[in-house]
Design a protein that fits this description.
- The protein is α+β, with helices and mostly antiparallel strands.
- It has four helices and 21 strands.
- Strand 13 and strand 14 form a beta hairpin.
Length: about 300
């Protein structure tokens, strides 16, 4: 069964289960029951190798709380207004904003009490504003580099904007100032309106980009997973069936971590420049960083749990 068919099945099943009952009910599509699931946050916290986890469910203040073991809290930051499209760098205009306490985009990320409906966690909408997490060697990550980054997003730029202002739009990134050496990593949308993962290997950036038939659909939910094992960069997009393989991969030996004090940023790419580059326009929730390569089954389980489903 193709990943696309599985995804359609998952979404359809989620809609049926969601409307029919609350925590603990079971739906039986054939022989494999599907249990409605609302513990996505606990799923991530209990995954071995977790370094940092920013749920982005903060409702006030400026702290983006890290629920991982290291408490690498970030800071919500307004960006300057960028009034026009930067054609030379392929970076879109933005008002430099973010908005806390926005509607949930991850169906399985909810708190529950016995006998009550789930209470969905909020997220953050970005459009030029960003979260900045101070440099920590663990987020570099240190060599030998093996890591996984997960994030849920709903893009909110228009198809017309994608066509008239083709831009890089960074979801999560850690990139050093330009110095002739390419370092760090990013999950982003490309000017061709495709999802990509990128890492620096010193002489260049290496991209794993989805195929041209996977154009980003606005206002749709995406679970993006980037893995790097020291030699291969992979990107998974809504991985409902990981036996089908990653959506994009590239050979990429020689990862170069960013130096201190370069931060990790969520919601943009290069806020350090006089005119910031690569803002992401859309909602972001549940960003997680691991110092291991998650296995295919774990990645699939995280996707299913995030969709509020658990196959049994």
């Amino acid at each position: 069964m193709s990943a696309a068919v599985v995804l359609l099945f998952v979404i359809g099943t989620a809609a049926i289960v969601w409307s029919a009952c609350f925590v603990g009910c079971t739906f039986h599509p054939g022989a494999a029951p599907v249990v409605e699931f609302f513990g996505f946050e606990n799923t991530l916290i209990n995954t071995p190798g977790l370094v940092a986890y920013w749920p982005l469910n903060d409702t006030s203040g400026t702290a983006a709380v890290d629920l991982g073991p290291n408490q690498f809290n970030g800071t919500y930051t307004m960006g300057p207004v960028v009034p026009t499209y930067d054609a030379a760098n392929q970076s879109d205009a933005s008002p430099g904003t973010f908005a806390l306490n926005q509607p949930n985009i991850v169906p399985g990320d909810a708190g529950t009490s016995p006998g009550t409906p789930p209470v969905l966690s909020p997220c953050v909408a970005f459009n030029g504003g960003f979260v900045s997490v101070p440099f920590h060697p663990e987020l570099g990550p240190p060599l030998p580099a093996q890591f996984t980054i997960e994030v849920w997003v709903v893009p909110n730029w228009t198809l017309n904007d994608a066509q008239t202002n083709p831009s890089f739009r960074s979801v999560v990134a850690s990139a050093a100032p330009t110095s002739g050496t390419f370092s760090g990593f990013a999950i982003l949308a490309t000017p061709a309106n495709l999802w990509a993962a990128a890492i620096g290997i010193g002489s260049q950036d290496v991209f794993a980009t989805t195929s041209s038939n996977q154009t980003i659909v606005q206002n749709s939910l995406y679970f993006l997973v980037m893995t790097y094992d020291g030699s291969t960069l992979k990107l998974w997009v809504n991985p409902a069936d990981t036996t089908q393989g990653a959506d994009a991969s590239a050979a990429a030996s020689g990862f170069v971590p960013v130096p201190s004090p370069v931060p990790l940023v969520i919601g943009t790419g290069r806020p350090d420049l006089p005119s910031p580059l690569f803002p992401f326009n859309g909602s972001i929730q549940d960003v997680a960083f691991y110092n291991v390569v998650l296995d295919d089954k774990t990645i699939e389980t995280h996707y299913m749990n995030g969709m509020s489903l658990q196959m049994t």
